[in-house]
Amino acid sequence: MYHSTICSFMFSANVFQPRMLVLRLSNTLKNQNVRIGHCTKVPRNVNLEKLQHGYLFPEIERHELMHLRMYPNANVIDLGIGDTTQPLPTVVTSSMVDFVRGLSTATGYRGYGPEQGEKALRKAIVVAFYKDLGIKPSEVFVSDGAQCDISRLQLLMGPNLKTAVQDPSFPAYIDSSVIIGQAGKFVDETGKYKNIEYMTCGPQSDFFPDLPSIPRTQLIFFNSPNNPTGHAATRKQLEQLVDFARVNGSIIVFDSAYSAYITDDSPKSIYEIPGAKEVAIEVSSFSKFAGFTGVRLGWTVVPEELLYSNGFPVVHDYNRIMCTCFNGASNIVQAGGLACLSPEGLKAVRSIVDYYMENARILVDALTSLGLTVYGGKNAPYVWVHFPGSKSWNVFAEILEKTHIITVPGSGFGPGGEEYIRISAFGLRDSIIEASQRLKYLLYHQEN
Amino acid sequence: MSITQNFTTPISSSSSAFLAPSSFNSRGGHVSLPVKSLGICKCVATPQEAETAYKTRVIRNPNMGKLQAGYLFPEIARRRNAHLLKYPDAKVISLGIGDTTEPIPEVITDAMSKRSYALSTIEGYSGYGAEQGEKPLRRAIASTFYNELGIEEDDIFVSDGAKCDISRLQIVFGSDVKMAVQDPSYPAYVDSSVIMGQTGFYQKDVQKFANIEYMRCTPENGFFPDLSSISRPDIIFFCSPNNPTGAAATRKQLTQLVQFAKDNGSIVIHDSAYAMYISGDNPRSIFEIPGAKEVAIETSSFSKYAGFTGVRLGWTVIPKQLLFSDGFPVAKDFNRIVCTCFNGASNISQAGGLACLSPEGLKAMRDVVGFYKENTNIIVETFDSLGFKVYGGKDAPYVWVHFPGRSSWDVFSEILEKTHVVTTPGSGFGPGGEGFVRVSAFGHRENILEACRRFKQLYK
């Protein structure tokens, strides 16, 4: 049962200390779990030691579990981890069922598929997303998801280079950079890892980095529409980015996992920008586009024109990684992906995307009506809410404690996320409406 | 003009035609394929339009540069495709890449159909799953394979396959560790070690990468390395039953291995992907050996048991007792990698895995394994009858045939050219594989019989 309590306003200028201690459950504290017994002589990977705490989203889950233990009857609404909730369209699942049934027959059985993905699917991805952009099916690598591809790209690039990320951004870019050995130690004062360039993206600069002030790095991770801010870069901004990469000889890894959520005319692919094929890799996913978060399907585009400094094509090495460190996405899932990209499939997943965007609109309206400064929600299923002067983990804790709503504290996405909360728009309409009401009630009552 | 060939034949499920040079020849940088294949296909970029093509200033990862050629099995596929182009009417039989061929039993596909369908319902839809795998599946794996071995459900990490897990384990260990591998062995161990930066350069004269300990496994030493002769590695990859030799280590041998690891503070990564093929009572899991939990990781797969080569499902066991030198549990770091570099195996595949481990599913898997074992017997008998020294085939779906004094790529080519049967040259698995050819026993019965007829014809 949700009880309303009136207590001090969390986002006053005074830093509010909630009675519930926000436990940053760390699973990497040295010696926290030392066991008695035989120790091997294998040294722990120093790169993993550098990681400050667990990956962000399992940490959020852990808080949720703790909360549920304290309030077993609470009707918790999860607007935290961006997990899709709407069922898959039947046109998609029936094609997977057909494929599965075929696996039990002599003619329909399939063993190993090409590691790069089924030809038909690679072709369909090009037609659906890269039409007239000069991308070939041979440049498309089907995978089990963008998060996995990001690490494979890091494995490809190796430890001896420097990465730039937006601040705030999806934590896998930074974490994978640390894991592969590109980053230095974490500095508590700044909240940043050494040797990673954090490109501040805040409202003051229209959520686009001040590129002239950014030193040259070899890799630039750029996510648009952005998780968590929801900002979709404009054509002009992306032209600047491509130009910047060209001038510096850098490689952009462009994450377009949310491009289906764009409602204005912001570019959906980096390859809409002339010259991008020579400087950019694009990673994308069926997760948020088609509800495949558990089914697992994504892809990465590596254009043939993308060359290392010695002229060697990046695509060649990426293919080697895919053949050696991976063995293809599940064939069943690829059949589902192909169905998503049929005319009927596209229509069906489109309506699910619209459903989530209507959720976003409801959340944006609710929060804006309370006088909060709200970003995002127009080109992405994330709402980025500003609580000036606050600590985002404290805001997260208070919202959870008082409204039983899970969100994500902005600082989990980088120091540039401090003072912000990310609210995801995935959820059943009723839950979204209920959540909006609880937030309104809490915040309204704080005001009065 | 570059030596390019247009590989436009339909790609079989086991081929990887991407490296076909034709995809590059219109751009700056292309791949040239040597016409006379001497076993190593070197893929080198020779920028044609080097002067005009834009190059980034990102230096190519030198570790990738150390790799000598494409991964072994796509190379086999390429040879097969080239052969098909040459002999378009030939009935090529693939006993090369170990790709399963028999349909998946219905008890298993029914579960996957059910799960697929459920995803389109409100009650049945699920989004992100636990990265470590769904609890019921982890539980079933623990109770099916590790019953009474002290391995618990939360020691099990479900994945999209052993090959992927091998690379994730490499990411856990990082670049500052030294590997030992059996020689010959499954190429992913060496290749992933190179990619991770653990090795030095390839030494052509010995056909080995520097800083990897290659533990020779031959008929003479019963396919078990002489552990007293190797210098301490951090990590030991040990595949049993072995791909490609088919040898299954005895309890005594595995006890030696565990002891060696204990004495040296090393970690054994035991690849048990073929354990269900064991005929006798050799151990199916490293954890049958006392003390193994403190020194070993085990990785396995549904690929060769359930025909899941395309469906993608496997698992890795990391006991809580396995600690780094500073006492930190290895499982915690693997968990971090699984949460950050991976996002869980497909929920549909996991539903299939769970069905595999039901009583009916287990029986169905044993039947399929039995079928491939019968194939193996037929191949063993064939080569036996032709007077060859034949190894393996008893505990694994691979037959390891000795061709003394001959180059394995030459034998591979000869067999392919003269019988249209694809095999795998032993040297693709390491210098210790030279002089051998691996014949895999996956195939429809009639193809196996036909292939054996052709072998008899060639070598009578």
TrEMBL record, chain A:
The keyword Transcription does not apply. It comes from the Eukaryota. One of its GO terms (biological process) is systemic acquired resistance, salicylic acid mediated signaling pathway. One of its GO terms (molecular function) is transaminase activity. Its cofactor is pyridoxal 5'-phosphate. The keyword Transferase applies. Coiled coil: none annotated. Residues 75-425 form the Aminotransferase class I/classII large domain. Keywords: Aminotransferase, Pyridoxal phosphate, Transferase. Pfam families: Aminotran_1_2. InterPro entries: Aminotransferase_I/II_large, DapL/ALD1, PyrdxlP-dep_Trfase, PyrdxlP-dep_Trfase_major, PyrdxlP-dep_Trfase_small. Belongs to the class-I pyridoxal-phosphate-dependent aminotransferase family. LL-diaminopimelate aminotransferase subfamily. NCBIfam families: DAPAT_plant. This is Aminotransferase class I/classII large domain-containing protein. It comes from Flemingia macrophylla.
TrEMBL record, chain B:
Pfam families: Aminotran_1_2. Residues 91-455 form the Aminotransferase class I/classII large domain. GO terms for biological process: systemic acquired resistance, salicylic acid mediated signaling pathway. InterPro entries: Aminotransferase_I/II_large (IPR004839), DapL/ALD1 (IPR019942), PyrdxlP-dep_Trfase (IPR015424), PyrdxlP-dep_Trfase_major (IPR015421), PyrdxlP-dep_Trfase_small (IPR015422). It comes from the Eukaryota. Its cofactor is pyridoxal 5'-phosphate. GO terms for molecular function: transaminase activity. Keywords: Aminotransferase, Pyridoxal phosphate, Transferase. HAMAP family: DapL_aminotrans_1 (MF_01642). PANTHER family: AMINOTRANSFERASE. Belongs to the class-I pyridoxal-phosphate-dependent aminotransferase family. LL-diaminopimelate aminotransferase subfamily. This is Aminotransferase class I/classII large domain-containing protein.
